[in-house]
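Re: beginner question about structure tokens

> Can someone show what the tokenized structure looks like for a real chain? I only ever see the sequence side.

Sure, here's an example I had lying around. Input first:
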Amino acid sequence: MTRFDRYLLRFFVKVLIILFISISGLTMVIDVFSNFTEFAQYGKEGGGIGQVLLEYYGARILAFFDRTNALFCLLAAVFSIAWLQRTNEMTALLAAGIPEQRVAKPLVFASLAIALLAAANRELMLPNYRDKLSRNAQNWKGENPSPMKPCYDQQNHLLISGLNVVAAQQAIV
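And the corresponding structure tokens:
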């Protein structure tokens, strides 16, 4: 890995982190303001509002990364190449005889690494938070009944059906 590769990767990662923090932060702020009364109520019941926000958005940030990592990789790569063009570094590289494919190579490998990280997140981390991700701010404690979709258990050949599910009691009503 050459010095230029490290320079370009460092810039790519910085852009990727800035994109992720800014867009996820913006969506969190909008969501907090639209659900602030519910969060304040749950905060009064125990743990404080900071604890409630951490529990609620901790899992949602992982899900947000899962949904947006490809877009952010694309934007970071485009921005990195555009930055090289804007600062005339691409002209110097091409004048030195380095082909465009060689310039883009570290960005492709970094994008593949991010895709592998996203796959690990999707397969290893998100299943641990499926209960939290299935609830919304209005029913964070899972005490209110929510509609249930019937599903078929292939292993036991059973149809599991009901009108509602109460998550806190783990009951089908």
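Each token stands for a local structural state, so reading them left to right follows the chain. The chain has a mean pLDDT of 88.
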